[in-house]
Amino acid sequence: MAKIPTNRLKYRVQVSLAKCVPAHRSAKARRLHRKYHKRDQVNGMAVPLTSNKPNPHLSVLSKFLTVWIFLAMALGIVIGYMYPKVSSAIGTLSVGTTSIPIAVGLILMMYPPLARVHYEDLKKVVTSRGSKTMLTESLTLNWVIGPLLMFVLAWVFLGNYPDLRNGIILIGIARCIAMVIVWNNLAEGDNEWTAILVAVNSIFQIVMYSVLAYFYITIASSWISGTGQIVNISLIQVAQSVAIYLGIPFFAGIVTRYYFLRTKGKEWYEHKLMHKISHASLIALLFTIVVMFSLKGQYIVSLPLDVVRVAIPLLAYFIIMFSMAFAIGYYSKLGYKRTASLSFTAASNNFELAIAVAVAVFGLASQEAFAAVIGPLIEVPVMISLVNVALWIRKKHYKDKENEA
Asked: Tell me, what's the pLDDT at 3?
């Protein structure tokens, strides 16, 4: 029996172990396996490796997403200002304070990222090293620092405009449960952790939103001005917003994942189905932006000073919260993916809930409702810019730490 040279045997075993590919597989199979399954151990869990190199195979939609978003904003403003009947017709498509086109757009936008979440691994995620730090920092940023910071900025910049100020405060205490999923996905953050943080924030939102609104608008404001405005916010109203904008896409994502993993297998699901539906999220995002900006196109053009007044504290809020959260995540050694999830969850807000509450409590034509509506118009361009900032930070400061969580 011929002897196999020791050096060749050693080399063959090392390659197989390093790439986790059995030696008997074909060259093509090994290449596919390395492309889709190259993994590393982080905190006892296998996570995919990512590359900072641009993907030459990105679609035109993905590669120039920032451009498309700004074009969608411009198109929405033009439609709203030049064709007010169109925006009026869109505005009539609502049930109560819920806009049907926006609700449909948000649900379709959130569905693909939520279908991508590895729900079967969530137990491992929450029990991995650093999970307590992640949860503690997220809860502190979202429910202590975030509302307080927005309250301070509202008084600093809108002290003489109580109605606009109250609208800004309502945005600050509404923690994001919708578009943050898309921002995190675009920034290549941790999908599993984002799903967990969104679920936790949803529960806290039902319990804490009305309490915080009463505290900041009625009690804390009276400490500064001597008078506060009483607000009555129903828990049912908050729960309804959570059920529509989070419950529906969450349920659809879970059902889709478990059904097709069982019937089609993981390879087909991850690399065929997810590839096909991923563009639906971006198209829904652009559709939602066009609808939102078309509904308020006349406001933006006819009341530019009020828009600027509202935009200044919001812009400061988004940048401060994002920077603070990213610094905390970096120095806590959470790794890029979890830090991105922490940052976008902390910096984003639930504008759907803020608008619904402002309309229900203060009226559709109120300045509070106007401020709440302007919120997402400022948030969208800022967040897409922060997505690019996050990717730049990863390239500069996580260059040798690509395998971190």
From this structure: 53
Q: Which two tokens stand for residue 360?
A: 């229900």
Q: Looking up tokens 């679609």, which residue turns up?
A: 59
In degrees, rounded to 5, the angle at the alpha carbon of residue 161 between the alpha carbons of residues 156 and 164 is 95
Average pLDDT over residues 206-233: 82
Collapsing DSSP to helix, strand or coil, 4 comes out as coil
The continuous run of DSSP H or E covering 391 comes out as helix 367-397
Residue-wise pLDDT for 334-377, tens only, equals: 999 999 999 999 999 988 788 778 877 777 667 888 888 788 88
Sequence-distant contacts of 220-226: CB under 8 A, at least 24 apart: 220/151, 221/155, 221/165, 224/155, 225/162
Nearest CA to 194 among 113, 136, 288, 105?
A: 113
Domain tally for the chain?
A: 1
Q: What is the CB neighbour count within 10 angstroms for residue 58?
A: 11
Q: Which one-letter amino acid corresponds to residue 195?
A: A
CA-angle at 343, arms to 266 and 49, nearest 5°: 35
- The domain of 234 spans 59-397
Phi-psi map region of 389: left, alpha, beta (phi>0 left; psi -120 to 50 alpha): alpha
Share of the chain above pLDDT 70, in %: 80
Q: What is the DSSP string of 298-358?
A: HHHHH-HHHHHHHHHHHHHHHHHHHHHHHHHHHHTT--HHHHHHHHHHHH-B-HHHHHHHH
Is the pLDDT score of 127 beyond 60?
Answer: yes
Residues 390-395, mean pLDDT to the nearest whole number: 94
Task: Judge whether 49 lies within some domain.
Answer: no
Judge whether 323 and 346 are in contact, CB under 8 Å. Answer: no
Q: What is the pLDDT of residue 14?
A: 44
Q: How far apart are CA 213 and CA 232, in angstroms?
A: 9
Tell me what the mean pLDDT of segment 219-243 comes to: 76
Examine residue 99 and state whether it is found in any structural domain, yes or no: yes
Round to whole Å and give the CA distance between 300 and 293. 9
Q: Which amino acid is at 350?
A: N
* CATH number reported for the structural domain that contains residue 334 in this entry: 1.20.1530.20
| 251 or 32: which leads in pLDDT | 251
CA-to-CA distance for 246 and 255, rounded, in angstroms? 14
Nearest to 189 by CA among 65, 45, 344, 320: 344
pLDDT at residue number 329:
94
Does 346 fall in a domain?
A: yes
Asked if residue 87 belongs to a domain, the reply is: yes
Average pLDDT over residues 233-259: 82
